[in-house]
Amino acid sequence: MSTQAKFNRMKKQAKRLIRGGRSGRRIYGGIYELSDGKEVYLAFRQRKEIFRSGEKNVSSAADKGIACWAIDYDTLLDMRNNQVFLIGVYVRDEGDIYLTHYDNFFDDRKATVRNYESRGGALQKYLPIQHFAKIGNSIAA
Questions:
Q1: Which of 48, 67, 115, 134 counts the highest number of beta carbons within 10 A?
Q2: Which tens digits make up the pLDDT trace of 63-120?
Q3: What share of the chain is helix, strand, coil (3-state, %, to 5)?
Q4: In this structure, how many other beta carbons lie within 10 angstroms of the beta carbon of residue 136?
């Protein structure tokens, strides 16, 4: 199965899709229910969207501990309000899933804040990838 087909299947399995952007039509991610009843938010990203802080490639950024996944601050607050405390990233072009706990994004020793609102972006929290558990390509618990 192609990575696009896997991504389409992931979107269909979502309990709820999270949309945003100026028009509200861009799909940021989805909320999924695990077999134990807990919910998890997965942001949809591509590998090239790993924040590298100026490093040439992801590998060198990861070696220096500066490779990060970013989640919009408003999305994180929305997840807290909806009692979704597992936050993750579904890497569309690889099919891998990275998970972490919500609290890691609000631990100042782990995460940083960057504000791109002046450039048409959003306030985001950046968490280094070493604080995520790579669980493969399935969220079944």
A1: 67
A2: 888 899 999 999 999 999 999 999 999 999 988 999 999 999 999 999 999 887 666 6
A3: 30, 35, 35
A4: 8
pTM: 0.87
For residue range 37-58, what is the model confidence (pLDDT) as tens digits?
999 999 999 999 999 888 888 8
CA 82 vs CA 73, 76, 126: distances in Å: 14, 10, 21
Question: How far apart are the C-alpha atoms of 83 and 109, rounded to whole Å?
Answer: 23
SS3 116: coil
Beta strands in 5-141 (DSSP E): 16-20, 26-33, 39-45, 68-72, 86-91, 97-101, 112-115, 123-128, 133-136
Q: Say which DSSP state 77 is in.
A: H
The Cα 10–Cα 80 span in angstroms is: 22
Q: How far apart are CA 53 and CA 115, in angstroms?
A: 14
Q: How far apart are CA 25 and CA 138, in angstroms?
A: 26
